[in-house]
Amino acid sequence: MNIKQILTTVVISAVTAVTSVFVYSKYQQNYQPLSSSQSQLPVNYAGLLSGDKLPGGPVDFEQAAAISIPAVVHIKTKTNPTQTNNQLKRRSPFSDLFGDDFFDDFFGGPQNNRVQEASGSGVFIANNGYIVTNNHVIEGADEINVTLSNKKQYKAKLIATDANTDLAVIKIEGSGFPYLLYGNSDEVKVGQWVLAVGYPLTLETTVTAGIVSAKYRFLGINQRKAGPKGNVVESFIQTDAAVNQGNSGGALINTAGQLIGINAAIASPTGTYAGYSYAIPVNIVKKVVDDLIQFGTVQRAFLGIRPQANGDEQTDSQIKEGDGVVIGEVLDKSAAEIAGLKKGDKIIKLDNKTVTTWTELTGTVASYRPGQKITVTYIRNNKENTVTLTLKNSAGTTEIVKNSVLDKLGADLETLDAKKAKEYGIEGGVLVKTLSDGLISDQTPMKKGFIIIRAGGKTIQSVDDLKKAIETAGNTILIEGVYPGYEGVYQYAINDLRSEP
pLDDT tens digit string along 144-159? Predict the structure, then answer.
């Protein structure tokens, strides 16, 4: 090949390259990638994008974990065995027929002679030591100990509990504690990332991640503690974040580190995590916590309706719902009746928030107090209507309800004098001075002069001790005590503690 041919080849190659670059650059100016224009996306992508935002990259949980770990505490409880003088013997209801020692001899003696220990989690909701946890974490405990993530330990006192929502508030002395900010559980979306923070299986602080898999779940577990007459509230956030025993009372947070729920339960055939966990929405939590701290009991609001029963045998639900809640009954003198709601009306919104199920409705109302106003949107005769009503309490008023749990007993109670306690050979107790109409006289043969020494498994040495024991007992409590001059410890079961007046 001569020089002329080589030069010709080089020139042709150069011209070809320049032309290719020129044509490509012109093409790129007119070309827009598919992902940069939402309007050009295939229809099966609809709904994946929001505004100008493309699907994000990997979610970073580090900041949320760092915020939440110091604010979540380890709660350990101790429940003491029955403490009675050696001269006192526990009376069995069968003792008159078989003798006092029959069941002890047959079954190997008393079983309540060991300290019972349990553990769970809790969350600081203020810098002055207030902690929210589950009622079932501290129920029946004689001693509550709190360990922080920095290993510092404190003794906690019980402030108040609510079996209907399975929530409790305890407090440790001090200030400057790290605490979590409340989020908004109404804004939680199915599919969003969440973190569960707690102390499962007696381990150190543990963080697990998952997504919200459902909202407004009703499980029926609070009914066991509150009793059949309790006004239970269950509207759980369901997630697939791993939660185990010990996580109860811990935090469910969003990726911003805000508290959106209190972990309370798992769905499992084995008792350990098997896929689903449940948290109490923070909008319910913060209202209940505020009530317990301010008033000692929950100020529960009611619309004053009952849902229509479901006549469709093809569904498991006993309530007719799906695109709203159909009213089956309007209670007399209730907020609903005063506002003009009627049987057959279908409630579809509360304060402009869509309501499709009875669980959603009760969960929303549970975040309000009596006396607050709420707008109710309903359908009657195929026409949409909106009315504003003032919520009431169970007594049909808007007044603040104080904790009157002792009043329900129908007894004049007095802390036993220390000298008398020593004379009777007991550590202390509460004297039943007189009895009137109430749960005790209605349900038991208890007589005046009875001295209460234990209630709900707790040692009782004052009226305040008895009040706290009843507050944490759910719907039923076992009261134990003695009659001066008589041998034996007598037991009386009191029911319907949570029934409304």
Answer: 999 999 999 999 998 8
Residue from 68, 119, 166, 291 carrying the catalytic annotation: 166
Residue 421 forms part of a structural domain: yes
325-330/305-307 β-pairing: antiparallel
CATH no. for residue 456? 2.30.42.10
- For 484, the token pair is 């001066």
Would residue 166 show up in a list of annotated catalytic residues for this protein? Answer: yes
Interatomic CA distance for residues 495 and 99, integer angstroms: 27
Residue 259 forms beta bridges with which residues? Answer: 182, 253
Tell me the pLDDT tens digit for each residue of 416-469.
998 999 999 898 999 999 888 788 988 999 999 999 999 988 899 998 889 888
Question: 350-357: long-range contacts at Cβ-Cβ below 8 A with a sequence spacing of 24 or more?
Answer: 350/374, 350/375, 350/376, 350/377, 351/375, 352/377, 353/186, 355/324, 355/325, 356/321, 356/322, 356/323, 356/324, 356/325, 357/216, 357/319, 357/321, 357/322, 357/325
What CATH number does residue 281 fall under? 2.40.10.10
Are 258 and 337 in a shared domain? Answer: no
pLDDT for the residue 487: 84
Does 395 map to a domain?
A: no
Find the domain containing 265 and state its range.
185-295
DSSP letter, residue 300: -
DSSP calls for 418-439: HHHHHHHTSS--EEEEEE-SSH
Instruction: Indicate whether 162 pLDDT > 50.
Output: yes
pLDDT score of 497: 74
Q: Which of 68, 185, 248, 367 is catalytic?
A: 248
Q: pTM to 2 decimals? A: 0.68
Beta-sheet pairing, 130-134 with 490-494: unpaired
The one catalytic residue in 136, 185, 235, 277 is 136
**74 tagged catalytic:** no
State yes or no: is 52 an active-site residue.
no
pLDDT band for position 258 (cuts 50, 70, 90)? very high
Residue with tokens 């979590």: 180
